[in-house]
């Protein structure tokens, strides 16, 4: 299997509840390496740019407001099959549908405040990693 990179975001609902360490433990227990990490407060323009792919969706404005409601932690996760593996660890978008043991089953508050973001394809992962990090900041 190929070694991949994926972009993870610990969302404001999770930073607010000091869940960063518990969420990082899930990534590391699954064999993913946290190769870069950065805590930041997104501006509205940055959140709109990051989620531009969702700009036509009915939940876009609420999503942007939520994502700027507090600090986030952007991270690069590296490992075998990292894109799909991270999506597995995260669980379904709606925590009501997330498998037991996943981050969203354990920590998400709602379909919107669902604790983590993860890239959904290798191509999007490359773009999303580059949105937050310079190559020199990524050490696997
Ligand atoms: P993500 O992009 O954050 O990893 O989540 P995802 O792929 O599982 O979900 P996606 O469909 O890409 O939606 C992006 C984020 O928008 C919020 N959302 N709200 N109110 C709603 O119906 C709704 N649907 C989605 C969530 O924060 C979701 O993670
Ligand atoms: Mg998505």
Poorly predicted parts: none
Helical residue percent band = 25-40%
Strands, total number? 4
Task: Examine the coordinates and then state which fold CATH places here, giving the name of the CATH topology.
Answer: Alpha-Beta Plaits
How far apart lie the N and C ends?
17 Å
- Indicate how many domains the architecture comprises: 1
The Cα radius of gyration reads: 14 Å
What does the main sheet amount to?
4 strands, antiparallel
| Unique ligands | ribavirin triphosphate, magnesium ion
H/E element order: EHHEHHEHHEH
What's the name of the CATH homologous superfamily? Nucleoside diphosphate kinase-like domain
Q: Which structural class fits the helix and strand makeup?
A: alpha+beta
Gross geometry: globular
* pLDDT averaged over residues: 98
Number of helical regions: 7
What is the highest CATH level, the class?
Answer: Alpha Beta
Main location: cytoplasm
GO molecular function: ATP binding; metal ion binding; nucleoside diphosphate kinase activity
Subcellular location: Cytoplasm
Catalytic activity: a 2'-deoxyribonucleoside 5'-diphosphate + ATP = a 2'-deoxyribonucleoside 5'-triphosphate + ADP; a ribonucleoside 5'-diphosphate + ATP = a ribonucleoside 5'-triphosphate + ADP
């Amino acid at each position: 299997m190929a070694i991949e990179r994926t972009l993870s975001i610990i969302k404001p609902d999770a930073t607010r509840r000091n869940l960063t360490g518990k969420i990082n433990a899930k990534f590391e227990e699954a064999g993913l390496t946290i190769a870069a990490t950065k805590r930041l407060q997104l501006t509205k323009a940055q959140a709109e740019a990051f989620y531009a792919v969702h700009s036509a969706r009915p939940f876009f404005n609420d999503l942007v407001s939520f994502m700027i409601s507090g600090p986030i932690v952007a991270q690069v996760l590296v490992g075998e099959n990292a894109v799909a593996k991270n999506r597995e660890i995260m669980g379904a978008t709606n925590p009501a549908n997330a498998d037991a043991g996943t981050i969203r089953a354990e920590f998400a508050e709602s379909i919107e405040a669902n604790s983590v973001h993860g890239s959904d394809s290798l191509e999007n992962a490359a773009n999303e990693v580059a949105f937050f990090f310079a190559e020199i900041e990524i050490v696997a």
